[in-house]
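Tokens for Adhesin domain-containing protein. Go.
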Amino acid sequence: MKKVLFIILIAFTSFNMQAQKNIEKEAPFSNQIIDVDLDFASSIEITTWDQPTIQVKAVIKTQDPKYTELFDIKFKDDNHTLFITSNSKDVFKAYQDDHDLPDIGVIYSQGLDHQFNYQLMVPKDVKLNISSITGDISSDYVNGEISVDLVSGNIQIEEFDGNLNLDTVNGRIELPGNDSSMVAKTVVGKIQTTPELAVVRKEKFIGQEISLKNENAQNSMRLNTVNGYIVIN
């Protein structure tokens, strides 16, 4: 197991009855898979840079310093995969216990006023898996094999090189479609494309499905949503 180097910068401020904690952690990149699980995120911004490191910056806000202080991000390098996780469920569970909420196996994420905002810096040609229950995921540019699994939130990518696999239940997926082969599906949602993309639409009783095969394409994408909206520019 490789030794993971941590840089932790923590600061507390108080304004509008909120406590804020800033966290910064990083680890060396050696072509390992990056697996990121940040449940209950408010936002996740992916930045591609030229450094041989993986870095996460988090700005955490809650209504009470106790719960802000409990929050942490963990790095674990195991079997050529770097796992990055948060303990947000533990924070909500502490709030649930403190307020005598019934234990019915539900994490009361809405009971605690919070904002969990992340910035993830990764090198080019990365294999990156990201999952969250909530939050908006955005990037000006990503490069590599990128998979996103999101329950409720939007995904917006301005530019990419590589292969994308994006899944949501609710929310909007928006990205460019030039120089790409693609398959996009919805269960009850809609798909919007530009006239320049010669997509093939499959007739379905409910939902929509499109595809585009381009033998000369440098990129590919598979997009799936249950109840969301897909926009391919």
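The first helix runs from residue 65 to 70.
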